[in-house]
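Risk register update: the risk of archive-format incompatibility is retired. Evidence:
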Amino acid sequence: MQKHVDIKSLLFQVAEGDEAAFRVLFNSYCHRVNSFATGLTRSETIGQETVQEIFMKIWLKREALTSVINFDAFLFTMVRNHVYNIMRRQALEAQAKSTFQGEVVATFDSEDDDVLSERKHMLDKVVDSLPQQQRRVFQLCQLQGLKYQEAAALLNISRLTVKTHMQQALKTIRMQVSRLILAAAVIIVSEFF
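Archived output:
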């Protein structure tokens, strides 16, 4: 029971903006949060990122800590929801990547070599037009098949930065390729009329 009173008083101090109390809270729970998140994801990196993100949220919304009755339940519910959101995003990204690759492969398989060569040249041109860091991330992850964490380590940036660059690169590529295909279709149609 004494622990409950101590955590309550610690939460009130954090809610008032006491950085020393926040450090005590962080040091008391960071290893448990990391272990829990790592156990759910089987990724030490995601576990460490989860610790940072959860405690950043706690600090940013610290005023709400005064209404928390059971901090352990509150904290581990936050961690669980955060990890599930990450896993949901990863599943959606994997599905989108698979769909994108499947569409590209299906399209390329059905075309003759000249069209295939032209489309590859078009894709290369679009990739070359990407900002340098996006291009490097796209080449490492999409063309060389590296995982986000591997690309992050190679480029000395965070996994989340790699993810953001990939999302932006794929969005730009889809838009540019669509525009080029539309322009080519307009040219072809105009030749007949």
